[in-house]
């Protein structure tokens, strides 16, 4: 859900509550070349320094019991944190050199598809077997159109127990094997601590239809995939997924993850309590040798993704074993998995996770530049090693909080801002990508939690989906963008982005929420000139655009109308002043090329009319993609994987919900609708 301020604290007028997420888009004009600014903010930012919020459409919901019963659509609203003391400057100058050669600490060149998505293998059937789910396809298309491609990981915990077979009854693509269930002390996705509660990871049986499905998606949108090779039993390797994927998907597979969070194997009972980094080193070598000796494998043996530690083991302990030297030819991507926090105590009160964290208390921790810096700090040494070994370096699974996220935090506009700053900080720190995890109907951090609200099944769009598009446009399609962190205050992050070694874009974030007319800021950008020894390069004017759109009526396409407001710049003074709402984020395009390299052209979208009659059409429950992290017993259907979670069909939103809740979004003058 998207909120009307960073803390989701405001209430709409008496006629109904409104969840809002706003868009300001600024286009800068420079002679015949057009520059542009995109500002992402909240409802009412048309008057960023006043106390009166803008006029917004208001509507009422129909039956909304599900919005409070299910985490993905909860109605929890938190109070926005108070303004910092002392208050950061609300007007400051950002002076930038126009050429990369005059800039220190620039990142390595980054891809536009930096942010991708992580989906649990056990529920990938949600993307469909008979029908490719159109909303998901459209969401992928919106990213690929801006970034040039989109990366999706299919795997996770359930990949460890997966087996490819020739066929399944009733032409099924995936089944959970009731006779082969792995007992496991882990209770839910990515809990940082060991729980005493019991969970089960079902053994999965799947056919090559899964691989053909992924290949079909790749032909419709420029989607590339990461798959997982089982490592639960290295005495009896199961390499069929690599054999078949090499043949069916070919170059559409970017990599094969070997071992999902092996540092938690012993904790979860799948290895002896003494299992350590040297044991993992040896087992990984067994898999590498098996791949190399398998004559049916043509590419997988040099595309491995590892070690994917969750954080219990230190990477430096593994590097000390000679791991990278020993397996460098096999490893394509060095990977880790980490969430900003965990909400495991609330999800499992008797699980031994300590005191329950109050979302209101933790919310301010997300609204600061220090959060992203803290998250990347443990990996900076490994990032440098990745460059030395010429390897990609990815945060292979991440989001705001494990164990379902924090209601009111993970699904707030503040979360979108957090993900923007976090993503840019990862890029600046020389990560080469990050996979945002898609959880379930009892998970609040979703990129796109599914829902039924019509004769066809739809998705809702979470705040981090918009962060993904922001990142795609910030980095563009050329795959040459280099990022520098110019932040001087933790509440007002600033990044410069150089493309082809020339300044192309500037990203501005405002973590503050306006209170009594205070909180928004003005950043005066100066390009070249001054002490840089370069000619002035500030555009002549900027234009601001606004848009509206519905929250739940989503099939993954962008819709909306734009309203444009022009803001002049001062080329004589070589300055352009960009207002950034509180809270909000702005993306400033400094040339027509910079804008063209990030802009959508005409996104190919896909109709939902192929599934029109709910009673006559066999469909899959959207919650299948939802609470998925491989942790559910085989006695549960494929639509859920988390033990004890409420994700069956009866928990889904009503099929004919009559409502329109308006949000306000960002960038391309459109929202998802």
Automatic annotation (TrEMBL):
Ranges of compositional bias, category Polar residues: 639-652
Coiled-coil ranges (or none): none
Pfam families: Glyco_hydro_79C
Stated name of the protein: Beta-glucuronidase C-terminal domain-containing protein
Keyword field: Signal
PANTHER family for the chain: BETA-GLUCURONIDASE (PTHR36183), BETA-GLUCURONIDASE C-TERMINAL DOMAIN-CONTAINING PROTEIN (PTHR36183:SF2)
Signal peptide: 1-35
Region described as Disordered: spans on this chain: 632-652
InterPro entries: GH, GH79_Enzymes, GlcAase_C
Residue span, Beta-glucuronidase C-terminal domain: 495-587
């Amino acid at each position: 859900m998207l909120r009307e301020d960073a803390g989701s604290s405001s209430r709409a007028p008496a006629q109904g509550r409104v969840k809002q997420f706003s868009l300001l888009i600024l286009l800068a004009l420079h002679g015949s070349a057009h520059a542009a600014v995109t500002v992402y903010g909240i409802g009412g930012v048309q008057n960023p320094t006043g106390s009166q919020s803008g006029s917004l459409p208001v509507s009422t919901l129909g039956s909304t019991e599900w919005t409070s019963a299910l985490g993905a659509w909860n109605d929890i609203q938190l109070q926005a944190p108070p303004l910092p003391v002392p208050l950061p400057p609300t007007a400051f100058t950002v002076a930038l050199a126009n050429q990369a050669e005059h800039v220190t600490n620039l990142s390595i060149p980054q891809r536009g598809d930096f942010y991708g998505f992580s989906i649990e293998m056990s529920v990938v059937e949600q993307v469909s077997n008979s029908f490719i789910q159109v909303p998901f396809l459209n969401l992928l298309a919106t990213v690929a159109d801006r970034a040039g491609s989109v990366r999706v990981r299919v795997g996770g915990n359930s990949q460890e127990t997966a087996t490819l077979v020739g066929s399944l009854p009733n032409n099924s693509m995936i089944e959970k094997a009731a006779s082969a269930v792995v007992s496991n002390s882990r209770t839910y996705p990515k809990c940082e601590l060991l729980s005493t509660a019991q969970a089960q990871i079902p053994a999965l049986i799947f056919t090559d239809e899964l691989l053909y499905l992924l290949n079909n998606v790749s032909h419709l949108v420029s989607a590339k995939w990461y798959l997982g090779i089982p490592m639960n039993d290295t005495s009896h390797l199961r390499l069929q997924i690599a054999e078949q994927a090499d043949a069916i998907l070919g170059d559409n597979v970017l990599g094969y993850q070997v071992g999902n969070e092996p540092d938690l194997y012993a904790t979860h009972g799948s290895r002896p309590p003494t299992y350590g980094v040297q044991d993992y080193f040896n087992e990984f070598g067994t898999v590498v040798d098996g791949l190399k000796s398998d004559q049916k494998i043509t590419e997988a043996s040099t595309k491995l993704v590892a070690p994917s530690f969750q954080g219990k083991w230190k990477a430096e302990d593994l590097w000390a074993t000679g791991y990278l030297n020993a397996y460098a030819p096999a490893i394509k991507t060095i990977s880790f998995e980490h969430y900003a926090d965990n909400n495991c105590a609330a999800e499992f009160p008797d699980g031994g996770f300590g005191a329950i964290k109050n979302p209101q208390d933790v919310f301010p921790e997300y609204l600061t530049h220090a959060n992203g810096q803290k998250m990347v700090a443990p990996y900076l040494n490994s990032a440098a090693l990745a460059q030395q070994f010429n390897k990609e370096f990815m945060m292979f699974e991440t989001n705001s909080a494990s164990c379902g996220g924090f209601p009111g935090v993970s699904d707030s506009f503040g979360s979108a801002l957090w993900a923007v700053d976090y993503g840019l900080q990862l890029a600046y720190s020389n990560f080469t990508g990050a996979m945002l995890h898609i959880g379930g109907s009892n998970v609040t951090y979703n990129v796109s939690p599914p829902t039924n609200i019509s004769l066809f099944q739809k998705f809702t769009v979470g705040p981090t989906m918009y962060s993904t598009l922001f990142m795609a446009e910030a980095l563009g399609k050329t795959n040459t963008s280099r990022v520098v962190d110019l932040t001087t205050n933790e509440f007002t992050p600033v990044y410069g982005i150089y493309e082809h070694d020339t300044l192309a874009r500037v990203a501005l974030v405002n973590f503050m929420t306006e209170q009594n007319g205070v909180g928004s800021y003005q950043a005066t950008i100066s390009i070249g000139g001054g002490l840089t020894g370069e000619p002035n390069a500030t555009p002549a004017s900027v234009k601001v655009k606004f848009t509206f759109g519905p929250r739940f009526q989503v099939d993954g396409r962008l819709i909306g109308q734009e309203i444009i407001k022009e803001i002049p710049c001062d080329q004589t003074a070589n300055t352009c002043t960009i207002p950034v709402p509180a809270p909000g984020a702005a993306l400033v395009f400094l040339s027509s090329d910079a804008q063209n390299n990030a802009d959508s052209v005409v996104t190919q979208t896909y109709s939902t009319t192929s599934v029109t009659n709910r009673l006559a059409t066999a469909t899959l429950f959207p919650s299948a993609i939802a609470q998925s992290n491989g942790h559910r017993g085989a006695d549960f259907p494929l639509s859920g994987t988390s033990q004890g979670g409420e994700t069956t069909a009866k928990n889904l939103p009503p099929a004919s919900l009559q409502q329109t809740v308006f949000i306000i979004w960002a960038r391309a003058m459109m929202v998802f609708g």
